[in-house]
Design brief:
Bound molecules: D-xylitol-5-phosphate, zinc ion
Largest sheet: 8 strands, parallel
Strand content: 15-25%
Structural class: alpha/beta
């Protein structure tokens, strides 16, 4: 079985020291950097945009997994592609034509993801499955770090695995991940786990990444 990939969300990092934080999590064994972009409209919070992403691009060689919680998204995709993103994920729940946004992301030779909120019917993913590289299954309502993992997510991971069938799509789970829930996510079929507060609020980033990877399941 392939090794589970851990994607720390820099939303919980110390922004006054962001370059070092990114180097520290890379040294601690992170596989991917997860970057949460929020617009104050699609979600009730505002974070950062392409200018910040560009400024940290040369701090690590790890892939940048850019999670766009923004609506509209289409008109900003070029900026997010050009600032150094490797994977660009848009939400299924935005009001725009998803197919066009997927095509635009691919036109920049970037990997493309679709994120699905906890209350959205997983069948809505079906029309896009042949065109995407990853699904982000939200295990909290998007907008803020530090929320509790929604337990129903485990069944949703199983179900989404089922509809993906043998397609080569990463299954990323995002929100409330810690070592207590990670093993169940992995068993259900997750291939990437995002974690913000459970890594950055810990004194040892290395230990917390290791714990999430292994899962203490208690
Ligand atoms: C939620 C974000 C998540 C979140 C992860 O809207 O998409 O990436 O910041 O943080 P924790 O792990 O603290 O839930
Ligand atoms: Zn996220």
């Amino acid at each position: 079985m392939e090794k589970i990939k851990i994607a720390p969300s820099i939303l919980s990092a110390d922004f006054s020291n962001l370059a070092d934080e990114i180097r520290f999590i890379e040294q601690a064994g992170a596989d991917i950097i997860h970057i949460d972009v929020m617009d104050g409209h699609f979600v009730n919070n505002i974070t950062f945009g392409p200018v910040l992403i560009k400024s940290i691009r040369d701090k690590t060689d790890l892939p940048f997994d850019v999670h766009l919680m923004i609506d509209p998204a289409y008109k900003f995709i070029k900026d997010f592609a050009e600032c150094g993103s490797d994977i660009i994920t848009i939400h299924l729940e935005i009001d725009e034509k998803i197919h066009e946004s997927i095509a635009l992301i691919k036109s920049f030779q970037k990997k493309v993801g679709l994120a699905i909120n906890p209350d959205t019917d997983i069948k809505e993913l079906i029309p896009y499955l042949d065109r995407i590289d990853q699904i982000i299954i939200m295990s909290v309502y998007p907008g803020f770090a530090g929320q509790a993992f929604i337990k129903d997510t485990i069944d949703r991971i199983h179900a989404i695995r089922g509809i993906i069938s043998n397609r080569n799509i990463e299954v990323e789970v995002d929100g409330g991940i810690n070592s207590k829930v990670s093993a169940d996510c992995i068993d259900a079929g997750a291939t990437i786990l995002v974690a913000g507060s459970s890594i950055f609020n810990n004194n040892s980033y290395k230990q917390s990444i290791m714990n999430i990877r292994q899962g203490s399941n208690n």
